[in-house]
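Thread: Newbie trying to understand structure tokens

Hi all, I'm a second-year student working on a class project, and my supervisor (Dr. K.) asked me to get a predicted structure for one chain before our next meeting. I've only ever worked with sequences, so writing a 3D structure as a token string is new to me. If someone could post the tokens and maybe explain what I'm looking at, I'd be very grateful. Here's the chain:
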Amino acid sequence: MELGVHVSKFTWPNGPQKLAQDLTRIAVAAEDAGLTKLSVMDHVWQIGPVGPPELDMLEAYTALGYLAARTKKIELLAWVTAVVYREPGLLAKAVTTLDVLSEGRAWLGIGAAWNEDESHGLGLPFPSTKERFERLEEALQICLQMWSDSEEPYEGTHYQLARTLNSPQSITRPHPPILIGGGGEKKTLRLVAQYADACNLFPTSPEEVKRKLDILRGHCDAVGRDYDSIQKTILGRVDPAGDVTEFLSAMEQYAALGVSLVEVAPSMPDPARFVTLLGDKVVRPLASIG
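---
Reply by user tm_fold:
Sure, no problem. This is what the structure looks like when written as tokens:
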């Protein structure tokens, strides 16, 4: 099983003046530790489960561009982009740019968006749930078309592009991998089956994740997709400063279901030390699972 680090908090003891250096320390530690992915949230305010909205939050793709310049091997993505925060043509261009400048290490992580407060706060669009999912499917279609050889117009219900030119093209071919976040059974998992290279589920329990994956398998059968071609991922929690036995035992259960990547967020004031401890205590035993 692979391990990634998810940077969900940017309020650290050194303050904004040292944020760049702190991010560099995390990125370097992640590569040194053998982690395979480095992700940031695509939010403009801090979210409730992590802290109050007034805490520091960096714009995702600016931060990822900075991290691309500070790393050499680790894969980079927003976990996950809110589809309505950027026009799909510009989103495809941003991910392509990240892929080119990282020499082929970019992923597109994307979802239907959920944070109504920050959207209204900064004047970002936040239509109905139905429309957000319609826009998500159109955005996936647009990104895939822009990463193809086609420059034909795109005519959707919500988006119209006169020419889907994308130059330079992504280094990763046929396109940067696509991860769709969320476990919605009727819409999200259907979109995973039809468009995505990876899904992300909340690890509420092995039984619930198995149920979700069974539903995904059904969607794959319906659209003629190879279920095994989709990487299964979860977000997890671990304190590498303590006993990691329980975490590893839980990951064994998820790996048995086909989960091959767990993404964890730093849980101590010094996030670089957190990542270093992951390398010391978690990466190797986790790699032997699955």
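A couple of things are worth pointing out once you decode it. The chain has a mean pLDDT of 97. The longest helix spans residues 129-146. Feel free to ask follow-ups in this thread.
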